[in-house]
Amino acid sequence: MPSAVWSGHLHFGLVVMPVRLLVAARTKATRFRRLHRKPVNHLPSATDFPSSAGEPDDNSDFKDGVRLEARSDFEEPEETNDERLAHYRYSPVRQVLQSEGTGEEIRPDELAKGYEFAPGEFAAIDPEAIRAAAVETSDTIDVFHFVKATDVDPIYFERSFYVAPDSGGEKVYALLLEAMRKEACIGIARIGMHRREHMLILRPSEDCLVAHTMFYANEVRPAPRIESEHVSFSDKELSMATALIKGYAGEFDPTKFKDLYQERIRKIIDAEVCNRIQMFPRPQKQVKAAPDLMEQIRLSLAQIESKKSDAKSPKKPVRKSTTAARKKPQRERA
Description:
The termini are far apart. The protein is built from six helices and 13 strands. The protein is of the alpha+beta class. 7% of the residues are buried. It has a seven-stranded mixed β-barrel with strand order 1-2-10-13-12-11-9. The protein has a domain at 4-25 and 133-219: Ku70, Chain: A, Domain 2, CATH 2.40.290.10. The chain is elongated, with a radius of gyration of 41 Å.
């Protein structure tokens, strides 16, 4: 079972029940890392070998001073994948943030947020102001009304979560689920999560309640305008279209649909796993050798003995000179 991304209580009226939100669906995609590919061996080309000059014979052509030998049935073997990989060495790369103004590398503590309100014109935003605007994670899902399931367009559905009851709320949970099924309605609620306030659609499914975060009205783009007012069709055409739809009628089984691209990528990876590429060795950090403890003790003792010997030796008196240097008076020039 997936781990809970939120836990708290579901409120509607005076009814309270402990619940958890579990991620119901997540996109699966193969993630790749970027590698730096650098050639390590010089591959010989045709210019590396001197051509032999001579008279052409019946089985060769001669063009621009270079003999072209006659073709034969022998073909050079194609380069294997192992040989192709052996010509390169690889190393992982890391993304470096660089200033567009100075070109210098930027440390994470030097980053700030800015809003580009015009091309090349920014307003610097205080990170503290952004943090203060975040919505605190709430401990309740507040249901404020119920609507018919047909009243809500699925285009407003964003992410899906399973709503599971916590210990002690199983009976109230089952009662609410059955009542929503009977009335064919869905609940509209709100929750504070992930620094935002989200609108939730609580929908009864076969086994449990499902919560969908909603797009806000200003996030849904308007539908394209289709001129269908002046289009007319006969009853026969409509009946034929209806018969065609019934001919393709079937049950929805999502397990029949496969991600063809991901399956092909997986086969490529499985075929290449056995081919280990040559990686550049990572630079080793210079580790300072641990100091020799005995040598440090010996030097410390030597310093102590030196200080003791200096303290025992008599100091020579310093003779002070009593005669001051006399300066000759300078003669004034007339």
